[in-house]
Amino acid sequence: MKSDQITILLVEDDETLRFIVKDNLEQNNYSVVIAGDGEEAIKKYSETKFSLIILDIMLPKKDGFEVAKTIRKIDANVPILFLTARSMTEDKIHGLTIGGDDYMTKPFSMEELLLKIKVFLRRSISTSGSSNEDITSGIKLGKFVFHPDELFLEFGGNKRKLTLKEVELIKLFSENKNKVLNRDQILEKVWGSNDYFLGRSLDVFISRLRKYFKEDPSIQIINIHGLGFRFSIKTN
Fold this sequence. Notes:
The structure is a single chain. The protein is an alpha/beta fold. It has nine helices and twelve strands. The protein has a five-stranded parallel sheet, sandwiched between helices. A four-stranded antiparallel sheet has the order 6-7-8-9. The radius of gyration is 18 Å and the shape is globular.
């Protein structure tokens, strides 16, 4: 995918910030569609295919959470990057719980935003550019089949769509089955950095993965106190 084919939906009600972000993104050859409230965001989303969504949480009419929930019912794969106020700690966690992939705290630098966008788009492109053989084979995890290239888990013929972050975390665990992974190691590998809020984010994602895998009791994500986690698969 070339940069001139990449379209980003920017949802922000602060007109000044919206202008600054849009201008910087366009200078970096991204196509940008803007929305100033939640209802407009959903309308714009229904009209265009987007590569990534930058979504403020505090919005008129419908907040960012409601927008994200609506989008996730339609598309589990498009990356959603939340914009949050510094004091909204629980909102950050909630945003990840409902399907957000990452967040940025206001005020933020454009350099950091552009870097996150590049990382998300690179991962999106890599999942869409695989051969058919890679896509159809999958990775056996207990009674599940994990399809990282198509972003879903399969169990008994049923498919569960996954976000990019969920795919990256499951892939890391699958490559290190029955090994203890340090929390810092996981955060650096999946999120690219390590801080308190990202640590809380990791806990949210671990909780989600445990729910996904609960149908197979042979699979456990074990918390190793003071160290990290072990992705355990018992074999007969």
